[in-house]
Amino acid sequence: MNVFDVLEERGFIQQTTHPEELRELLDKEKVTFYIGFDPTADSLHVGHFVTIMAMRHMQLAGHRPIALMGGGTGMVGDPSGKTDMRKMMTPETIQENVNCFKMQFARFIDFSDDKAMIVNNADWLMKLNYIELLREVGVHFSVNRMLTFECFKQRLEKGLSFLEFNYMIMQSYDFLELYRRHNCKLQLGGNDQWSNILGGVELVRRLHGDTAFGMTFTLLANSEGQKMGKTVNGALWLDRNKTTPYEFYQYWRNVDDADVKMCLSLLTFLPMSEVNELAELQGAEINKAKEILAFEVTSIVHGEADAIDAQKAARAAFSGGGAVGSLPFTNIAESQLDMDILTLLVDITKLAPSKGEARRLVTQNGIKLDGQTISDIKFTITKNSFNSNNTIMIQKGKKVFHQVNLCI
Prior knowledge:
By secondary structure, the chain is α/β, with parallel strands linked by helices. It contains 18 helices and 15 strands.
């Protein structure tokens, strides 16, 4: 099956330039393609993971990926989907983040024997001559047309800086450079990048003929259109030190029933025949599909051993069997005793983002300590609150468990 059809069947493809030409090209040639990643943090997150999975499908079909690190574009910032200008990062921070991205990519993409590349657009963007760029590239961009794109329109009322206004030109120039250096003919990205991708496709085609293509992917959103991958502690990261394998597993174990098929299609390599069977499960049986989803995604991101540990911990917690494997925990000292339940939830375990949210959880019977519902916001954690093993199991709602260990 053509990889274009694979991506289409699994629900990746949102928009494509020249779809029939691209499908034919992917059948005839081993195509070099790229996806850009601006290093705005020191870890990739689950939003990136969708494009990484698409990259892997492409590689498995024999095509060559380029993971483009935005060491140069990261100095400017993409206005797409932003309500305000992004905070400027130092070159040192950008480079640190690029280094973190590179290490993470090695877990998902095969870079041996020139099967894939990691390049940094700082290598050419930081050396650009401004006048030459204006003459070669700027002449091909219509300001009137740029202002029709959603990424610019939604920022005009609040104010769009000239710095950000250059982002599309810089990203388009990336495609031109990669075409010239590596015969790269295809740019992939999230659907919020459509206007930027169009700019690059048109620039390469104008300067070099009918040779460039673009494709965007579905953004990871639930059945209500809300972006997925947000937790009480922020983004769902691919770095185990920012989101533990257990927390990662639990996120997917707890997705809504309506989102199971989409997540299985986009985030696992299970055959679509199996995905369709799992998606047909009803009632309590759908939990089997969610367990498979959580295990498969966690295995890809963190490895099978961590996925097994996370699955065991989740099953033990739900059955009341206590802490096993990678269940999240917090250690406290005796000097920290006599704290109230709100402090435990907010400051110690981070199970609630604020005292207000913690108060709501407690008063609405959403918190249990070792199976006992706590409804008093003045409840105090003392030494007597701990069991014979000097532990307390906190349960938030039906699905979140966290163990507190008293260190004596």
